[in-house]
Amino acid sequence: MRVRRCTKYRTLFVWLISSIVLTSYMRNDSQLTPRNDGDAVSLLSSLSSAYATTSKNTHPAILSKTINHDDNNFNNPLQPIIDLAANRKFDMSPPIFGEHNKAADAVLVFAYGYQPPAILRFVESLIDTGYYGDIVLGLNYEMLMRSLEKGKGGGIEGEEKDDRLGVAAGAFESYLEHRSKVHNLVVYDVKLECDPKDPTTCTAPYMYRILDHESHTSNRNTNSTTNIEDTTTVEFLPDPRIARSVKLLRYEYYWAWSTNYVNADTMGSNRIFLSDLRDVYFQRNPFNASSWFASRELYSTTADATGDDASYVDKQYVQQTSLQVFVEDTSKFVIGTQTSNARWIRAIKGEKVLGEIGHNPIVCSGTTLGGAMAMETYLRAIIDEFDNSQCDIDGCDQGLHNYLLYSGRLLLNYDNDDAAKEHDKNQNSSILSTTNVRDTVNGNKLALKIVEHHKTTGSTITGIRNTKQRRINRIEYFSLGYGPVNSLGLLCGFGGRRPLQKLRLLRHEEGKALPVVLNWDGMVTPVLHQIDRCHEILSVLETYGDMLWQ
C-alpha cells in the first residue's frame, strides 16, 4: 500500500529534518549505508499458498520451512485467521516505510495514539546510543497525519489543538521516510477500530489482507478499504478476537513482526527488544551486554562442548533461547499485595493461581528482551493465554506476562520434543535449576536470578542447527538497578517516592543537559522505563522530546 504524500508542506519544512533533528546524530548515520533487503521480505507474506491448503482442524508450523514449531502447548496465533480465510490466500499488510533486515537485532514498539514528540524522543535517543539494528514502529499513521494537517492532536490521549502541528505534517512524514532509509526504521500504519466510549479497547480488522480477493467477489466481506492513490480495492479479513486493550492487541503485531527475525537454520545471533514508547528513554544500547551486571553469567555454555566452533554455536543457542525480564522495586509490593497486579492474575486464572504465585516479585511487561527464537515463542504464548482467558480489562498483558513466567509454562514447553521430555522424565533431580547472582559489594543484594533447564551430562552440541531444541531454555530475572532496563515506577512513585539523587542513582555531567541515571553498581542504565513516575528526570526528558519536535 502506498502512502499519501503531504506535499503541501514538504518543501517548506524539510529543514526540520536536516537542521534540527538529524544534525546532532549524523555521527551515527555516517557509519550506515542503505541496505538491500530484497531477501528480508516478511516470512508471513511467503506463506499464503500454504494457508490456502490448510485444514481448519490442523495446527501447521506457522513459519513453514524456516522453523518447525508444531507446538501443542502454544497454539498458532493465526489459526482463527486461517479459519476465517476459508482457503483464501492472505498475508500481513506490509510496512509503509522501510524493510525488515532479518539478520539484525530489532526493537519492536507500538506507538498507536502517541504524538511526534514522544515518538522522536524514543527513536532519537535509541539511535544516539549507536544502535544500528531495526526499529519497528507501529503507529496510527493515516489518522495522525490527518490530525497534524488540521493542527489537532491525533492520539487516543485527546491532546488539545496545537496550530504548530498543522504546518509540520510534511516534515514528520519526511522524517519517517529519511530514518527508514538511513537507520533501519520500519513503519507500519496500524488501523484499529475502537470503542467510542473507551478508545483504548479495539479490534484489528485491517491487519491481514486477502491476496486473491478478485476470485472471491461473491464472498466479499464489508471490511475493505481503498488505496488512496490508485483506488484499488483491498479486502481484509475481519478480526476474529474480541475487543481488547491496545496493550494486549500489540502483542499480535509483535508476534507477526518477530517472525521476520527467526532464523533457525543458522542459529542467528539476532535478538529482539519489546518496549513501551511514551515512558521509555535510552541512555545506552540495550543489546550491549557489557553494561549489564554479572554479564559473564549470560552467555555461559550449557553443554560440554569443545572447540571454538562448538563453543560459539553453544553460546548462540543460549542467546537464542533466553529471555531477559525486569523486576520492579520489591521493597513495597509483590504480586499478591499490589492491588492491580493481584486483580489481573485473578481475572485470568482465578484466586487459586494468585495464591500460588502471588508471593513473587512483580515483573514489568512493558519491556522484555530475548533471542529471536525465544521471543517468538513468548509472544505466541501471550496470545494463546489471552485466547484462553479472554481477559479484556486494561492491564491483563502484565497479568499474562507474570503468570507465564511464574507458572513455569514457558520453560516446561517442549515443542513436541519427545527426546527432551524423556530426558527430563528420567532425571533424578528437578527439571529446572535456579542460580542466584548477588551483588556482594552493595549489601549482598539479589541482582540476577537465572532459571534454566539442567545441563545434560555428557551432551554435545553436534547437530544443534538441525535438531529440535527447547525454544525457551533460560529466563533471566534482573532485579531493579542491575540489568539493561530500570522500571522506575515503584521506586519513584506509587508510594515509594525515593529520590534518585538521594540514592546516588542520578548524575549530572558538565556540559550535558540530560541527567544520567545509574545502576547500583555505578554503570549507566541502558534503558529507563516509567520515566513519568520520576519527577527528577521527567520534565527535562519531556523538554527534550518537545525540542526535537519544535
Polypeptide structure, described:
With 550 residues, this protein is α/β, with parallel strands linked by helices. The protein has helices spanning 7-13, 15-21, 26-29, 48-52, 79-85, 116-127, 141-149, 163-166, 169-182, 246-258, 308-320, 339-357, 372-389, 396-407, 418-425, 489-492, 535-549; strands at residues 90-92, 106-110, 134-139, 185-189, 193-195, 198-203, 208-210, 224-226, 233-235, 244-245, 271-275, 280-282, 322-327, 363-371, 432-439, 445-453, 474-478, 485-487, 506-507, 516-517, 527-529. Helix 6 (116-127) crosses helix 17, helix 12 (339-357) runs parallel beside helix 14 (396-407) and helix 13 crosses helix 14. Mean pLDDT is 74; it is low at 1-72, 153-161, 213-231, 294-308, 415-420, 426-430 and 456-468.
Query: β content, as a range?
Result: 15-25%
Fraction of residues in H or I helices: 25-40%
* Strand tally: 21
Question: Quick one: biggest sheet?
Answer: 9 strands, mixed
C-alpha end-to-end distance? 30 Å
Q: On the 0-100 scale, what is the average pLDDT?
A: 74
Radius of gyration: 23 Å
Number of helices: 17
Q: List the uncertain runs.
A: 1-72, 153-161, 213-231, 294-308, 415-420, 426-430, 456-468
Strand order, biggest sheet?
Answer: 4-3-2-11-14-13-17-16-15
Shape: globular
Structural class: alpha/beta
